[in-house]
Amino acid sequence: MATILIVEDDDHQQLLYQEVLQEEGYNVIVARSGKEALELAQRVTPDLVVLDIAMPGMDGIETLGRLLSKNNQLPIILHTAYATYKDNFMTWSADAYVVKSSDLTELKKEIERVLAKRGEGKK
């Protein structure tokens, strides 16, 4: 079973993603900040990270860079409410970019696609 690290500062969204992805058969761990995500990723190596961009303190773009500097093979999906970040070249190192929606179909498809590309999956 693939382990997904959700990095999201909004408690309601975090709970929604956790429940939906667990129903899809994934093991889900959560972090509320970039700093917490870095600490978790050191202890438990996730198979994929779903990363919000707009977070207080360390934003998702800085977190992305720091995660990849520790493990440049770590698949990361940026999941944000703002389509404008897609133009920021710093986001291009992510495996996918998904604009938030109340319908999680696109996010689930991208998770499946990225994991399949990396040889992982729900198992």
Overview features:
alpha/beta; 123 residues; Rossmann fold; 4 helices
Largest beta sheet: what is the strand line-up?
Answer: 2-1-3-4-5
* Tally of domains: 1
* Highest CATH level, the class: Alpha Beta
Cα-based radius of gyration, to the nearest Å: 13 Å
Strand content: 15-25%
Structure, explained:
By secondary structure, the protein is of the alpha/beta class. The chain has a single domain, classed as Rossmann fold (3-Layer(aba) Sandwich), CATH 3.40.50. It has helices at 11-23, 34-43, 60-70, 105-117, and strands spanning 3-7, 27-31, 48-51, 76-80, 96-99. A five-stranded parallel beta sheet has the order 2-1-3-4-5, with helices on both faces. The protein is globular. The model has no long low-confidence stretch (mean pLDDT 88).
